[in-house]
Write a structure and sequence with these properties.
Blueprint: E1 2-11, H1 15-23, H2 28-31, E2 35-39, E3 50-57, E4 60-72, E5 76-81, E6 88-97, E7 100-110, H3 114-144
Antiparallel strand pairs: 1-7, 2-3, 3-4, 4-5, 5-6, 6-7
């Protein structure tokens, strides 16, 4: 059983700039909460690119492997985690909105066992809401420079 959470907001920046910030491995740690580093074999992202994300939190460090599963500039970017939080997908959909950009984030998690489904039902929405809100704020800050 999958849980799906969708969030939306607006960033006061052109859609091309937002897409570039979302998909540049060097800039992802600037906007993705708890992300310390992103590494790719090619230094850039495209559909099918596998990459590593290093997270650093108060609970320690965690590395996750991921693969880009959707990449359609300048509107769609999505990845699935292939280690760490397996069966977790994150999608960003951008929409031109004059001088600003509408951002929709969707987090999909397919939990395996009963305990994982219960944990997902209780905590994922709250954590994902915080993550999206912080991501949006961070993107706004780096694009305002």
């Amino acid at each position: 059983m999958a849980s799906k959470h969708t969030f939306s907001g607006t960033i006061a920046a052109p859609i091309d700039d937002v897409f570039q910030a979302l998909t540049d491995p060097q800039r992802i740690p600037q906007w993705l909460p708890s992300c310390a580093e992103v590494s790719t074999p090619t230094g850039s992202l495209a559909k099918g690119t596998r990459f590593r994300i290093l997270f650093s939190t108060g609970r320690g460090r965690r590395e996750s492997a991921a693969e880009v599963i959707e990449f359609s500039p300048p509107t769609i970017f999505g990845w699935t985690e292939t280690s760490g939080r397996r069966n977790t997908k994150t999608f960003y959909r951008l929409q031109f909105n004059g001088s600003s950009t509408g951002v929709m984030m969707q987090h999909v998690s397919a939990s395996g066992g009963l305990l994982a489904r219960l944990r997902s039902a209780l905590f994922t929405r709250r954590e994902t809401t915080r993550q999206f809100s912080r991501s949006l704020q961070n993107l706004q800050k780096i694009l305002a420079r």
